[in-house]
Structures are given as structure tokens and as C-alpha cells.
Amino acid sequence: MTLLEFDAVTKVYAVRGAGHITALDDVSFTLRSGQTIGLVGQSGSGKSTIAKILTQLETPTSGEVRLDGRAIPRRGAGLRAYRQQLRMVFQDPFASLNPYHSIRYHLQRPLRLDRIVPKSEEDAEVRRLLERVRLDPGVVIDRRPHELSGGQRQRVAIARALASRPKLLVADEPVSMLDVSIRLGVLNLLADLQREEGLGVLYITHDLATARHFSDEILVLNQGRVVERGPADDVILNPQHPYTQELRAASPDPDAHFASASGIDGGAL
Amino acid sequence: MDTTVTDRTNDPATARPAGVPATATIRTAEDPPAKTTHDRPTFRSKLGSAFAMFRNGKSIAGLSILGFFVLVAIFADVLAPYSPTAVDHTARFQPPSAEHWLGTTHIGEDVLSQVIHGTRGVIVVGFLAAIIATLIAIVVGVMSGYLRGWRSESLSALTNVFLVIPGLPLIIIVASMFEDPPLAVVAAVLGLIGWAWGARVLRAQTMSLRNRDFIQAARANGEPLRRIITVEMLPNLMALIAASFVGTVTAAILALTTLSYIGVIPVTTYNWGTILNWAGAQGAFRQNQWWWYLPPGLCIAAIGVALSLINFGIDEYVNPRLRSAGERARAMKKKGLNVNDTVTAVRPATRTEENP
Amino acid sequence: MSDTLLSVRDFSVVYDVDPAVEAVRNVTLNLRRGEILGLAGESGCGKTTLAYGVQRLLKAPAVITSGSVVFHDASGEDIDVNALEADEMRRFRWDKVSMVFQGAMNSLNPVATIGSQLEDVFEVHRPSLTRAQRREAVVELLEIVKVGAQRYRSFPHELSGGMRQRVMIAMALALRPQLMVMDEPTTALDVLVQREILRQISALRHEFGFSVVFITHDLPLLLEISDRIAIMRDGEIVELDTAERIWHDPQDDYTKTLLSSFPRLTGEKGMVLR
């Protein structure tokens, strides 16, 4: 079932003194329930503009974005329903949780705002959410964000995103601020949740390696245009577009590096 | 004070000791700290954390002095040995004595009683003006910081207008409209001309807060605007609001005593400025009648010091580096280290003779 | 001239706070002339403290509590770094060792031209040079790092992040040091720019023969650029070997864990379990 549709979306910014900048140029793609799409691109490729359009910080100059067949509503009950179905996981787990509030508060609010469970069951639901992201509710529930590690915070942020039982998760570089050794854990958690709940996930990243393993399909963006798309392994292992090839060649790849006998100054570097 | 209240600098767990390289991260284990049970935050602990900015030596010292003056103001009737206007013709220009601890005035009024009663006016005007100014500053500052476009700009323009309104002439005009301007009116005028700085600072901080991820997250959750402002933002602005409040109290007290001293406000109820006015008019300065002008002067100084101490305390809370600068340097000195050294000290643990 | 540039023996650094933190514990390593040594490990493992500590760049409360650092100068002289006085240390730092910091490109003075900032280095450390000689040296440096002499009069904001980082490398290269310490020099850059700069660093060290200590949390990148890699954990080096042997035949369990913790671009290991 088609969950999210980008239909010929263009976004043009007027820049004072510099005319216009086309951040997105005729971008179209669809995302099905239970599917993960990796949006790969460098800074300025337009991938963050897509996130901004989805979170309504920006509106497309032309084209349409549809969730479940409906255009993004501007206000009222439709907007509420849209927000309930689409949730964000932000890049920086230090900044995305309010330092003043407890973990319990962070998870309780979406439950109450969208009336997910009756008030009497809120506490149990908060605990269930924490367990879902592999955190011990007894330990973390009444802590404040600064008492947790980066990885724990990002898990809390994921639990918060899941609280309203959304259909689509937009994950904007969810692991790039985390230590290398815990990235895989967080990505595996996201993959598990996605499989179990049939979530659609839009994974926005600059990192080809995680995009390849975490996504079903990859869209490569360059200067606002989709230059290549396809199944994740195809795009990364057998890139067709010159820009994708360039990205792939520039990304660290120890397997290829050590397979070639050329050594440190050989072709790979 | 530093207007950027970032959660990281407030956070002792992630605060980086000075000298640790920028990319070095203090270890944060994936496993939670040793404590396994954690109390649910009670109302008291929440209240405690809201006032965490006052939990340091400087703030506590300042609050103690301020608290003393507040108590004096409340219990002035009980504490003062005489009525401030009671005239004792047998004791004029008396230096301190057993009957009149701080001596008497030119017509034999008791100076101590005047100072005690004068505290009331100072405290009432100071706090009332600050409450009025802070409320306006919060409403205007946070709104103009959160909103965008013409509404934000016009609120900002209003703030700028009030920034440049000359306060002294305004007060003189208002005071002249009353035979005997009540303290509330004086406080209201001082509050009205004193909110603009606070509003500016709050606007700047709100603008930076509104783009933070946790505010974006709250909006994405569909939190209503009033909740975003009151529940998500205001707690993070508390230190700034407190600092602005304390600053306005200081300004209002100084304005009141100054205006009373130069005689712009012909108040019959005593405050420290009025006492100084009388003392000046009766030549106490020339005749060296120190017991008349020194006590109110020292009181003004003391309350100024108290309020500054509270503000220093808040500053240190907001920006722990300020505290570390002093405290750490002293602690390091004890260990024979100098924080300004550009070369890492070498101190083999087993050999001590190299340490001068 | 020996093959070793820097010998670090039994080196320990403690942050003298309460409680004291042992950031680096009894580290021993030899840095070879002209090699790129990668320091790897999770945040808090002490890799940055070690790299800064051997140049005594750490400020109090950091204290070197044991060990020795000997710099085997190209002139044949051995310099005991821990015994240097403050002013000797200052000279040592730019002449023999230089640093490229993470985000260094943002530390350029925004109101001075690139050229004048590079000239400053010579003015301070090579006061005998004439104005013309300084200028000539700067132009040469800008050409070496492929920024181009025409950028001499540019201001930092007129250059891209990658260009600015090249200027920082030029600055580090100015006095032809024998060791460059690079702390996450490419972390904030896009992958294409990052690759170009890495290529350049590698080419420059062949041309000028300096050694590099390269710190990054990006293990795949480190594996490609380094000749040898030191894996650090809790302030200790748990394994030190050539990049190739670390990759093909890691000995320590922790090294194995680290190697399996990142998804591979083309390999099969490090998969997200889906």
C-alpha cells in the first residue's frame, strides 16, 4: 500500500541579491508501508528540504506531497491526524529532548495529545514504549535527558516518535551523532521496530554504508534532483550515474581497499 | 550575563573540564549510572530544580541579606522602637545612644526607626516594579521571539521605543500629577519604563530556543502554542527571567532612592532616599552627623550588594565556566598547577622533589 | 638518522580532578618517520588526550604523571619533550610538530585575508625573513595545498569549507614540521571533499616526509589512510599493528568488536539485521 507520495515536488528559495535557488527540482517518489527508503546526498542536495516539507516547516513551490492519498493538510483535525501518522527522529539526541522534562513527560505528551490510551493506562504504555526501545523503564523513566547517554537519548527519541503509533517515521541522520560502536545497535532497533510494526521509514543520510544496509531502496540526490534510484544493493554496489559512482568511490570502503593489493596510495585512496 | 542558556552548559554531566580537547568526550556509558532506582519527581523536587539557580554560595548570601530586609519591612511596626515621625524635642541632633541607637534628626526623630520604616517603601517599590516589569517583559519578549513577521517586528519596535523613553522626566511628570504619589503609582511607573531590557534579552533567547530540536519536536507532536511557550520554553528561560527580575529590582530601588533624595518624589512615607534628602537639607553632611546619613546609605549599598550577589549566582548557574574559572583555578593552584599554563605539567607520581 | 621520529615510553596522563581520571595509561609506542599512525577508539578512550599530551598541549587539570616522550629530530638531536620549558615548547610546537584541529577551518580570522594569516606564521617564527620572502613562501604554500596563489587576498568566508581546511593544512605545513597531528580534520566535510583532502595529506607526507598522527572516530576511513593503527580503550593501547593486519587478523577482542560495529560499504559484515 502506498503510504507517502512525492509528486513532482519543486522548492525554490528566493535569495536576497542572488535570485533563486532551486532546493528541490521535480522530485517524485513513493514509499510503501513497511518499506525503508534511504535518501542519500551531500549537504545542499535537498535532502533536508524534504524533511522540512514533511514536517511543514516549508511548503513546496509546486507539486504535491500525499500521505495515505491525502495532501498535507494545513490545519484542523486533518493536520492533527497527519502529525499523528508521521513522526520525526532528529539527528542530535542532545538537542531533541527538553532538558527540563523527565523521560516520562516526553513519552506521555504524545499519548495524551493524540488520546492513544486512556489516562489510567498512560503509565503502563510509557513503560511498554521504553521496553520496546530496549530501555529499562525502572531505571530511566524518571530521569532527565542529561542523565542518559547519547545512545539512550536517541532510544528515548525513537520511543517518543513511536508513541502516537505513526505509519511513517522520518529519521534524519539518526545515528551520525552517536559513537560508532552504538550506531549499529540503534539502526538494528529501528529495523526491528519497522518490521514488527510495518512502519514506513524515510532514512535521510549522507552515509552510503548505513544507507545500503538499512534501506530497501535508495534515492541519490544531487543539487535537488534525484540522479539515481533503485534497490539499495544495486545502487551502492553497481552505481550507474557518474555522481553516485563518485560518491561510492569517495566513501571509505576497507573491503575493497584491502582486497586490492595496491596499498595505501593505490587506486582506492 | 551570557544570554545563551544552553542545556549542555547547564548540565554537569556533559560539562567539559577546562583543558580537555574539543573533540574529547567525557565518557558516557551506554549502561546507566550505578543508581538503579530513581524517585519519581515530586512537586518539591520540581520546585527545587526550578530554583536550582539560587543554590550556590553567592545567591544564598544575597538572598539572606535580601530576606533580612524583607523581614524588616514586614515587621517594621514591631521592630522600630519609635514612630518614624515621633518628635522628641529634648533630643535633637543626638549621636547614637542607648535610647536612640542610631541617634536623632534635627527635630529629634529616631533615625533607626526611620531606617526601619523606610525599608518598607524600598522593598515594596522594588518588588512591585520588578513584578510589573518582568510580567510585561515575559509577555512581550517571549511573544516577539516566538512569533514571526510583522507581529514580531512591531513588538520589537515597541520594546525599542520603551528602551529610549527617558524615565526620569516621565516620573517627574507623573509625580507632579499627585499631591502625594502612592508607592504603587511610583512602582507602576518604574515598572513601565523598566521592562524593555528584559524583553530584549528574552526575545533573543526565545528566538534561539524556538529553532531548537526539542521545540520542533513538540510542535510536530501537535502541542498547542500556549503549552509550547509555558511548558517547553519558560522553564528554560527561568534563569534569564530571574536575572532580569533581580536586575529590575535593583534598578527600581536605585531609582526610588535617587528620586527621593533629589526630592522629585515628595513622599511623606519614609524610604532611605527620603532620609538622605532630609539629612542633606539639614546640613548633616557638612556637620558630620554621620549617624543620620550613613545608615540609609549603607542600607542602599547592602541591598545593592545582595541583589548583585544573587545575579552573580544566577550567572554562574547559567554559565558554569564562570564558576570554574575562579574555583578551578584556586583548586588547581593548591595542586601546584596553573590553569593558564600553555604547557602540560609533568608530575611523575612517584617523584615529588621536582615540584617547587 | 634513525627510523623512529617519536618514542613514547610508559606515558600516562591524569586529569587531576576529584576523582582523578586516568585518561591515558602507560602507553608505549614508536612513531616512524613518514608514517601515518591512526588512533582509533570510542569517545572517551583517551586517543585525543594521548595525541595532545605528547605535545604537552593539554591544560590543567591534565597532568603527565609518568613516562617520557623523546623526539628524534632530523638533525640527529634527541629532544626530551617532557623536559622542555614553556618558551622552548612554543618553538618546538610550530617548528617540529603542528596541529590541524577539527573544525579548524572555522578558526580563521574572518576579517583578515588568507595570505596575511599565513604570513603571520612566518612573521612570528621566522623573523629573519623579509616581507618579500614571506610572501613568496605563502604563495608557494597555497600552491602546494592546491588552493592557488590567486586566493592570497581572499577572506575566509569567500572559500568553501574544504578550501579553508586546506588553508589550515598549509598553515600546519608552513614551517615544514616533522610531525603533524590531525584531530578529525575532515569530519565536518562532505565525503567528496573529505576524500580529496585525504589524498592530499597522503601525497604531502610523501613529498615532505613528515609523519602524521591521525585521530578520528571513523574507523573505515582510518583503515584506508593509516599505515599503522593503534586501537585504544580506557586509556590503553590494546592493539597496534599495520592497518592491513588489523583488518585481516585482529588479535584483541575489542578490536574485533570495533571492526564488526560498522556497516560495510561493499562487504557483507556489519549488516543491519533485517
TrEMBL record, chain A:
> What sequence ranges are listed for the domain ABC transporter?
4-248
ATP-binding is among the record's keywords: yes
What is an example of a Pfam family matching this protein? ABC_tran
Q: Keywords on this record?
A: ATP-binding, Nucleotide-binding, Transport
What are the protein's GO molecular function terms? ATP binding; ATP hydrolysis activity
The alphabetized list of GO BP terms reads:
peptide transport; transmembrane transport
Q: Which top-rank group of organisms is this from?
A: Bacteria
The UniProt entry, under PANTHER family, shows: ABC TRANSPORTER, ATP-BINDING PROTEIN, TRANSPORT ATP-BINDING PROTEIN
Protein's UniProt name: ABC transporter ATP-binding protein
The uppermost taxa in this organism's lineage are:
Bacteria, Bacillati, Actinomycetota, Actinomycetes, Micrococcales
From TrEMBL, chain C:
Name of the protein in question:
ABC transporter ATP-binding protein
Q: Which family does it belong to?
A: Belongs to the ABC transporter superfamily.
This protein's species is Agromyces binzhouensis
GO cellular component terms, A-Z: plasma membrane
- Kindly list the places in or outside the cell where this protein is found, as annotated in its UniProt entry: Cell membrane
- SMART domains for this protein: AAA (SM00382)
Pfam entry (one): ABC_tran
Q: Per UniProt, which keywords does this protein have?
A: ATP-binding, Cell inner membrane, Cell membrane, Membrane, Nucleotide-binding, Translocase, Transport
ABC transporter domain: residues covered = 8-259
Q: Which GO terms describe its molecular function?
A: ATP binding; ATP hydrolysis activity
Q: Its topology with respect to the membrane?
A: Peripheral membrane protein
